[in-house]
Design brief:
By secondary structure, the chain is α+β, with helices and mostly antiparallel strands. Helices cover 24% and strands 31% of the residues. The protein contains four helices and nine strands, in the order βαβαβββαβαβββ. A seven-stranded mixed sheet has the order 1-3-4-5-6-9-7. Strands 2-8 form a two-stranded antiparallel ribbon. The radius of gyration is 17 Å and the shape is globular.
């Protein structure tokens, strides 16, 4: 058996999520960020936020957004990750990014974010990808910085008192805008070529 080539079941497939995916997407996002199951991965927010990360209504809002897409990522026909893309003028917004906790740290996240950037660039011709990250999540922000995102220092207050976003365990939470240039440069080459 040739072990250099991964079997078809190891390859990722990306598709637009549908209404029938909503319960599985909620479970995936919750497992990646909240509760004890999230501690199996490194993206957990369990120490800073309790309660829910999203719910079926929140996922449906992303799914139904006219300028957006919710990508379901599968391996071997099984949902392993998801991410939101939303067209916002000259930029795309990247959100609702979740990888199954037991699969985190194996390189899936890098592949998924690269595919999301390619999709946004090719679908909408945008030059930037934007996202917001809880500002105290230094490890997560550092991971995005290694992928080419830069901190802007632009903060948005955390919605304290709105339990749809969780129950804060700290009083210093805010969202920071991270930005990456994903467009073509003047010579027409991708910014990451040769890197």
């Amino acid at each position: 058996m040739d072990t250099a080539t991964p079997p078809d079941s190891a390859r990722l497939t990306f598709r637009d999520a549908t209404e029938s995916d909503v319960p599985a997407l909620v479970a995936l996002v919750e497992s990646a960020y909240r509760g004890d199951s999230s501690r199996a991965g490194w993206t957990t927010e369990a120490d800073i936020l309790q309660g829910q990360r999203t719910d079926e209504q929140g996922v449906r809002e992303v799914l139904d957004a006219p300028a957006g897409r919710l990508l379901a990522v599968e391996r071997g026909g099984e949902l392993v990750a998801c991410c939101q893309l939303e067209h916002r003028g000259d930029a795309a917004y990247f959100g609702m990014f979740a990888v199954r906790p037991g699969l985190q740290g194996g390189g899936l996240g890098k592949l998924i974010i690269a595919e999301a950037e390619r999709t946004a660039r090719e679908s909408w011709g945008v030059g930037e990808m934007h996202m917001t990250v809880i500002s105290v999540r230094e490890d997560l922000i550092a991971w995005y910085e290694r992928r080419g995102y830069r901190r802007t220092g632009q903060l948005t207050p955390f919605p304290y008192g709105d339990e749809r976003f969780g129950v804060p365990q700290r009083d210093d939470l805010a969202f920071e805008l991270l930005v990456k240039n994903i467009g073509k440069n003047v010579e027409g080459a991708d910014p990451g070529e040769g890197a």
